[in-house]
Amino acid sequence: MSGNTLGTLFAVTNFGESHGPAIGCVIDGCPPGMALSEADIQPDLDRRRPGTSKFVTQRNEPDRVEILSGVYQGQTTGTPICLLIRNQDQRSKDYGDIAQSFRPGHADYTYWRKYGLRDPRGGGRSSARLTAPTVAAGAVAKKWLREQYGTTFRGCMTHIGGLAIGFESWEHVPNNPFFAPVADVSAIEDYMSALRKSGDSCGARLRVTAQQMPVGLGEPIYDRLDADIAHAMMGLNGVKGVEIGDGFASVAHRGSLHGDSLLPGGVGGVVFASNHDGGVLGGISNGNDLEVAIAVKPTSSILVPRATLNTAGEPIKLITKGRHDPCVGIRAAPIIEALLALVVMEHALRQRAQCGDVREGFPGLAARDD
Amino acid sequence: MSGNTLGTLFAVTNFGESHGPAIGCVIDGCPPGMALSEADIQPDLDRRRPGTSKFVTQRNEPDRVEILSGVYQGQTTGTPICLLIRNQDQRSKDYGDIAQSFRPGHADYTYWRKYGLRDPRGGGRSSARLTAPTVAAGAVAKKWLREQYGTTFRGCMTHIGGLAIGFESWEHVPNNPFFAPVADVSAIEDYMSALRKSGDSCGARLRVTAQQMPVGLGEPIYDRLDADIAHAMMGLNGVKGVEIGDGFASVAHRGSLHGDSLLPGGVGGVVFASNHDGGVLGGISNGNDLEVAIAVKPTSSILVPRATLNTAGEPIKLITKGRHDPCVGIRAAPIIEALLALVVMEHALRQRAQCGDVREGFPGLAARDD
Amino acid sequence: MSGNTLGTLFAVTNFGESHGPAIGCVIDGCPPGMALSEADIQPDLDRRRPGTSKFVTQRNEPDRVEILSGVYQGQTTGTPICLLIRNQDQRSKDYGDIAQSFRPGHADYTYWRKYGLRDPRGGGRSSARLTAPTVAAGAVAKKWLREQYGTTFRGCMTHIGGLAIGFESWEHVPNNPFFAPVADVSAIEDYMSALRKSGDSCGARLRVTAQQMPVGLGEPIYDRLDADIAHAMMGLNGVKGVEIGDGFASVAHRGSLHGDSLLPGGVGGVVFASNHDGGVLGGISNGNDLEVAIAVKPTSSILVPRATLNTAGEPIKLITKGRHDPCVGIRAAPIIEALLALVVMEHALRQRAQCGDVREGFPGLAARDD
Amino acid sequence: MSGNTLGTLFAVTNFGESHGPAIGCVIDGCPPGMALSEADIQPDLDRRRPGTSKFVTQRNEPDRVEILSGVYQGQTTGTPICLLIRNQDQRSKDYGDIAQSFRPGHADYTYWRKYGLRDPRGGGRSSARLTAPTVAAGAVAKKWLREQYGTTFRGCMTHIGGLAIGFESWEHVPNNPFFAPVADVSAIEDYMSALRKSGDSCGARLRVTAQQMPVGLGEPIYDRLDADIAHAMMGLNGVKGVEIGDGFASVAHRGSLHGDSLLPGGVGGVVFASNHDGGVLGGISNGNDLEVAIAVKPTSSILVPRATLNTAGEPIKLITKGRHDPCVGIRAAPIIEALLALVVMEHALRQRAQCGDVREGFPGLAARDD
To answer: How many domains does chain A have?
Structure first.
């Protein structure tokens, strides 16, 4: 527990600060016998890392991950896996003048009140940089789930600020710096260029999905699969909203429209006529794709002057210099894939624990398609 | 853990099924020395209980709570508090024909696949009836938080199906069966009457807030206050979306608009010029009101015939009879108040554990207003 | 967590006080599909219950257990199982005069200091009566482990006060009120009769074993199987020492004697030449019988006058009347069987979670004998 | 959870293998604002580290600890503290021939059965080397407890093999390589020299104590303070027995002897006439010194040939070469101090969480002496 651990059976404990010597995580509970090396993890870190386009922070971090434990002769041993990423390009002097003031929209004030002190360098622990260890851990979960169930995870951006991007195809996502599922991103580039000139920032909406989901993951009350997904997503910096399936659009739905009908077919003997519920029924996965959307607020570090207080309690005007993403949502797709994978991984192990010998299903069909 | 417990330090373990002998919960970790009797809990249960208007299920359950442990001479002792509610008005025969079929939008299929068997009577454990123990536990948390910090919790309905209710005043909420914050609910009554005639159901949007919040509750990564709120809310039956503060509207915001400026004033030396962030910064409460909204999907039990499968895997048409809420969101306000209170309670205790001796604040002011 | 829960995957949350309306527990995480009724639980409760011989407390409690949830049509559903035992024979007046004083060796003083108040009736929550829910939960774990792996649990008394009982055979244990593994218990009867006349009490030493153990249960560091066994045993009222295998005798052993040699044979291809390690190597079960011993201190409620303080801080002399066991160890055998079963159950589920697909073993043999 | 974490509020997650690149731990939940640097941790690591006398393993590890996170400008920030120790003197070739065989008394067989594979280099994760991160974390807990409550922790060896060392004074402990509380250790030196010549190993008995204990730490059932102490101690490599207070000697005690009488006096208004209970009553600290003893089994790595099996299931004779402690108990004193401090730390934070506002005590005295 104690706040910085995600999961219980596949437990990821995150540590580090933006400008400290290193960041990383320990994964406790990884099943043994899976082939694993840094090469399995680095690609997702590279997708998330800063400095890769002019639309994101120019901080130059190679984000090279080192496996310190839990792997022997290229295989997971079942013991804790420590993943370490050394910080390289700290410019802590950029943050000298914010040490004595509270940036609006930032965690400066709340950390100061909670702990009585704070590490102001680059936001310390509240920096989005701390999502890197999450991405690294997620890569391990993704690999296991893909090998075990064929489950895959994909995220993309669907709205940037006031601009609706639309969805054409997943195949476009790797081909542009915005993780946009469209072929032509010139409108996004224009939007972002204008935004950068204004010194302001904008929010974003993203979508993440899991396909080939095992059926039966989740708990009936409290630790439902969708509840744990919401926890993971809302725990990401700047996220202000989470939807499963049709989300807030469900409010205006009639039950006769919303409920996903079961039809015969598929590997397990059932397919759904629709997916308004986003792959979860009663907190438990139904085999449909998991469909999750999040809202990311605009970056709080902007060049537009803001009213705030300093640590003496005096009103001041503040501009946040330094190297920042004008839209933190741009780099969020690999992070929410990782978060979704970590939640599914946790529940896959829980399901094995409690229901590992359940062998039920439609008569005449293989008992479980997972 | 194991899925049916909410919280770690103020840990609420929920048990029971809709048509079993009893439902209830055990609260472990309640601070000692608080005056507590059934009279502190029953009012919130009465707000939630069924059968109180023609717009909700007609099941007649008194929902009388009994305190079985943890209270001595009218005071909490610090030991586990077991709260028991006997089921009274089970009509399990209503559910005879759904035992062999999977209702669309219900947990029937996922329970059957997860556990290999299920209790079909009234939805078994997936019934909304299981929110009663949550409400009971929430009443204990509410009382402690009110006495300790003056924190109060209020929920209301803001949209029912396609009808936007608007917000006039909290004072109207107790005066109508919809928990609507408006004086005139005739439009809602007309809407619901038409819906009932159609045999269909609708969704709802609700809002819940905590006022007089202590500053500093929450953890930096993963177990953020907003993350745990999202977990609790999305863990409620039928919830498909959660927002903190401006939620999905934040996507289109500019940073210069969204970030809440700090101004001098108030008990702790700071007030915020706005509350776009809904009371949480960097996962930690900032003293602003917590502002949370949820989307509830339409009830899945409807009289409109639906395509589905039976347990033999054969396609059938299904109508769900029995006694159901045409809009489960109507009775949700006391539940989301309870859930919010349970999350705040948990983090209040965690904060005392780790930071109980932090004595920082603006110079010349009392160190903490909490 | 929060102190009154044992286990994480098979999580038993205990509630109640000696003289409150009821005691009980909630089991969260029980695998579904196991036949279960009160008849599976009651026999172990009957073995533990008071009033069955003149050598134990004369409190008359039928200890009838009621299953309130988690079982449908005689099968576990996978949802929480609440087990309730109503208290019947409270005589709280017996405890009137101890409410204002601290009995030596009892938890009176520590509860008062911890919580600021305490329930003095029958020791409140510190009463050995609260072991009944543990025994009930243990009966569920025992049944599952027996059905799944053939594992069985047996406890007996080996020393009572200064009297070494010796070990003849497990078959004698059910035939005398002392759980003594000997045919002739007249020496014990004489010893206890003399003790009762003296108004004093004595300690005991017990042994508990698990046979037909699956291999591989336990974690490498901290949550080792033996660590969790020690936690469970030392968590029992009055226990002051725990041994695994040869225990304290190991201190004087040479390594050449102590290490248990592996020999070919058995179902899994290995048998051990000895069992000095008590069935655990490196924190993980090796298939040998689990061998555990505990020391129980003498009952603190005695008729011999003792020096102590009252709640005003004044020195007084105290005699503890009421109905007490002169040796609480006498009824401890079913309790430590239950505790051992609960720990093994927890680790069996953990093992399935993490290593459910491990299929290694000696070439030419079935991969796992569990 | 997941096995390699000790504690919930002060949660220490241990990672690493004996011959991997590094070992270490992450401490989550450390209170903020405490001065901390490597210099606070290194002395305890130096007390534990190998190669410091001819009576312990000659592996030469400087065990230099590096703080990677959670400290800013010399103060703990309240965020996770990662402590890293690079391995230096690995000689994995020493272990080439044990990769295909199971050393008696070692975890080789159980790891192989649990995980399907194992890291044989130096025992991998089952090596006593993994106690170094525990010692490092314990140093942080010790510092906080000393500053907060004045609590101090001391361990020593009282028996080595068949040799009873006795207890003269704590002041002798740092002056000899055996952590023996006696001035003249020549008998121990002779004993150990003879043992080394024989190629065999021996066990040990150690004692650890906490002084100036706060009152009220511990939970009533299951997570009692003594239970968590037993868990921590039995979780240490090679420990086969744990005692609190008089331990197994309590079996032969009468209640009139064993119960510790309360007398007026002291800071909190009470002193105890004796300490048979070792500082714990009803699972909760009573302010008396914590008194704990453990039994450590003889080292399993010996030069005496042993019968065992190889991974093909064939019987072989095995000698364990490499660099080993002939008595692992010799270096255990700093480890058990650390373990005791970690358990007390955990419960100190839990106590603040639940009972932080309890203000009870004897009339006319300061409410709490902690």
So the answer is: 1
